[in-house]
Amino acid sequence: MSRARLVLASGLGAAALVTGGLASGAVTASALAEPGDSATCPAAFPADELTLGDGVTGLTTAGSYRRDGVEHDSTTVPEGFTGIYRGSIDDPGGDLLVFELEGSRITHSDGSVDAGIWAGMSGSPVFAADGRLIGAVSYSFTGLLGSTFAGVTPADQLYDLLDDGAPAAPARIKLSSKEQQQLVRGGLPATAAERGLRQLTPEVTLSGVKGAKQVSLNRIAERFGMAAPSLTGGTSGPAEEVPIVPGSNFAAADSFGTISLFGVGTTTAVCDDRAIAFGHPANWAPSTESVHGATTTIIQGDGAGSYKMANLAAPVGTLVSDHLAGIVGQLGEIPATATVSSTTTGPKPRQSLSHVPNPAALGYVVANQTYLDTLLTLDQDAGGSVSLSWKITYQRADGSTHVFTRSNEYAADSWLSEVVTADVGADVDAIVNNPFEPVVVTDVEVTEDASREFRMLKLGKVELRQGKKWLKLQRNGKAPLKPGTTMKLRINLVPSSGASTASAVSKVVSVKIPKKATRTGHLAIVGNGVSFDDFYFDEYYPEENAAKSLPALLARLQAQPGQDDVTIQLMHAVKGKKKPRVVTQTWQAPDVTTGSFDVRLKQAGAKARR
Fold first, then answer.
1. Contact indicator for 431, 403 with CB cutoff of 8 Å
2. pLDDT of 406-432, one tens digit each?
3. Is the pLDDT at 237 greater than 80, yes or no?
4. Residues 152, 142: Cα–Cα separation, whole Å
C-alpha cells in the first residue's frame, strides 16, 4: 500500500492538497513577465519601507452575502478589504509582516469581527497605496476567536517562486518579547502575541459524499494513509472555467469530477501564464496536480475556525512549483489524467466519472467513488449484498498496454458501502506503486450490482462419510488419516444470522489422501468472506510485497480468493520428506461465506510428532 499522506479538500481551506506523490509531468516554463510589467504582476514593495500605521488594500473572494441591506456577490470576482501595518516578525526563514485587516467578511461594517481571517483567504494579495505588491495573507494568530490580525508573506519571497526557489516560511512563528510588545501596542491581544502565528491550514474535505458517515470516511482515509476529511461537499460534476486573477480562488486538485479532491486558497499574482498563490506550501513536495479556478459559496464564520466553502471549476493549468513561500501554477497546460468510470445497478442506478491527474491519489479516488456509488444506489448506509468487477488499463515501462480484471462478491449486515471499497482500491494502489517498474494507469472501470438484501452464509457442521453413514466432525477435533483412500466430506452452509436471506446449502467434496501420506495431517475448511470486524482489525490487503516482478504481483492479486469461495485444504506429512504437502481445492458457494473449521488427522498407530 502506498502511504503517501494526502489532505483532501473540496473547496475549503487556505492551503491546497497535502500530498506525497509522483513528480509532476514535464511542463516547460515560458517567458515570464517581470514583476511590475502588468497590473496582475505588480512590482514588489520593499518591506523595509513600511511604516507603522501605513494603510493598505487587498483583494479576496468572499462569496455571496447580505450586509446592511446590500447584497454582495464575490463568488468569482474579488472584492476589496483594507488594513493597517502593525509590525514585522523577524525569522531566519524569512520575515513576516503583520497587518490588522477589515472589510469584506473579515469585519462587519461597524468594525466588529465577522469571520475574521478565514481558512481559504491565504494568498490574498495586499497592496501599498501606489499599487505595488506588499505580499500575501498566509498566517493567522492562534488563541483568538475571530482574529483580524494576519501574517503576510513578503512579495520578494513570492516572486522568488518564479525562479523555482523560495526562502523557507515556517509553519509556526514564535514572537520575541519586543515583537510582542510592538504588536500589543498596535491592538493585538497579549495572549495572541504570546502564542505567535500559525499557517492558515485547510479544512479537510471530500466532494461527492454528502450525507456519508464521518467515521466511514475516516476509516477509508486511514486505509490509504491519508488525512481524514472533516467536511463533505463541493463539485461533483462538469464545470465551466473560472478566471484566475489576483484575489480570485486558486485550487490545486488531485482529482476532479464525481470525486473531487482539492484544496482552495487565493491567487496572489499572475505573471503572464504563471499564477502565484497561497503564501505557504500546498504539499511542499512534487506531485502532479491540476490547477483550477473556483466559485466561493460562502465564508462560514466560526471564529477561530472560519473557513471558505467553494466549488471547483474546470481545469486551467498544472501545478509546477510548491515551496514554503507559496505555489505556482502553469496556466494553459493541463496534465494528463487517469479516468475512473463506474456503472452501478440496483434500487437507484447511477454512473460516475472522475479524472485523476495525481497517480498517488488514484487508489483512494477509486475507493471513494465505489463507496459513493454503493451508498447512493442503495440510498442507505446499511447492509446488503454487492457483486463488483473492475478493469484496470495500464501501460508498462516498455510502452505496451495491458488490462487487469478481477471481481468479487460482498455482503454485510451494516457498513456495506465501506466494505466494498477494499479490493478494488488496493489493486489499483498495488499496481501504481509496484516496486518493480514504472506503470501508468490510464483507466479504471468498475461495474457494480447492489442489493439491499443481505445474503451471507457461514460454515455449519462438517460430516465425514463412513460406510453408509455421515459422522459429524467436531471443530478442532480428530479424524482418521487413511493413505490411499478418498475422504468424502459433506460441508453444510447455513445463513450467517437471522437477518440473512441466504438459503442453506450442502456440498459433498472428495479429498484424496495420497498413498505416501503418513503419520499426521491437518484438514482446514475456510469461508473466505470477510466480516466487518475482520475487515478493519485485520488489514485485508493483497500481499504484494511477496511478488518478485510485476507479472508475479498481478498473478498474486488475481489469485486472491473470492468472498463466496470455500477453501478446503489438506496438509499431510510425506514419508521421507521434511516438509508437509499441501493440497487445496475451492468450492464457489452461492453467496458470501464466512467461518472456519479445523480437524487434526491421525493415522492409526502413528505417534504424535512433538
1. no
2. 999 999 999 999 999 989 999 999 999
3. no
4. 15
- The string of pLDDT tens digits covering residues 31-51 is 556 898 899 999 999 999 999
Q: Could you give phi then psi for residue 40, rounded to 5 degrees? A: -85, -10
32 CB-near residues (< 8 Å, 6+ apart): 162, 271, 272, 274
Indicate the SS3 state at residue 580: coil
Give the tens place of pLDDT for each residue, 54-77: 999 999 999 999 999 999 999 999
CA-to-CA separations, 485 to 17, 469, 472, 515, in angstroms, rounded: 63, 17, 19, 8
Residue with cell 490547477: 291
Question: In 295-306, which positions are buried (b, 16+ CB within 10 angstroms) versus exposed (e)?
Answer: bbbbbbbeeeeb
| Strand residue runs (E) in 191-237 | 197-199, 205-206, 231-232
Find where cell 519601507 sits.
49
Q: What is the pLDDT of residues 179-232, one digit of tens each?
A: 555 544 555 454 444 444 544 554 445 676 666 777 888 888 888 877 766 556
Whole-angstrom Cα distance, residue 219 to residue 212? 12
Strands 326-331 and 401-412: unpaired
Residue 396 dihedral angles phi and psi, to the nearest 5°: -85, 175
The three grid cell numbers given for residue 75, joined into one nine-digit string: 463568488
pLDDT tens column, 276-329: 999 988 888 888 899 999 999 899 887 667 888 888 899 999 999 999 899 999
Q: Is 437 exposed, middle or buried (0-12, 13-18, 19+ CB in 10 A)?
A: exposed
Task: Give residues with Cβ within 8 angstroms of 160, minimum separation 6.
Answer: 166, 167, 325
Q: Which residues lie below 8 Å from residue 392, measured CB to CB, with a gap of 6+?
A: 403, 404, 405, 427, 428, 431, 441, 443, 444
Parse the chain into domains and list their residue ranges. 1-334, 338-451, 456-529+564-603
Beta bridge mates, 73: 64
- Between CA 25 and CA 33, with CA 28 as vertex, the angle to 5 degrees is 135
Q: Does 610 have pLDDT greater than 90? A: no
SS (H, E, C) 413-442: CCCHHHHCCHHHHHHHHHHHCCCCCCCEEE
Average pLDDT, the chain: 83
**SS3 for 121-168, per residue?**
CCCCEEECCCCCEEEEEEEEECCCCCCCEEEEEEHHHHHHHHHCCCCC
**Helix, strand, or coil (residue 308):** strand
pLDDT tens column, 448-461: 999 999 999 999 99
Residue whose cell numbers read 450442502: 506
- Answer yes or no: are the C-beta atoms of 410 and 453 closer than 8 Å: no
Burial classification of residue 54, based on how many CB atoms lie within 10 Å of its CB (0-12 exposed, 13-18 middle, 19 or more buried): middle
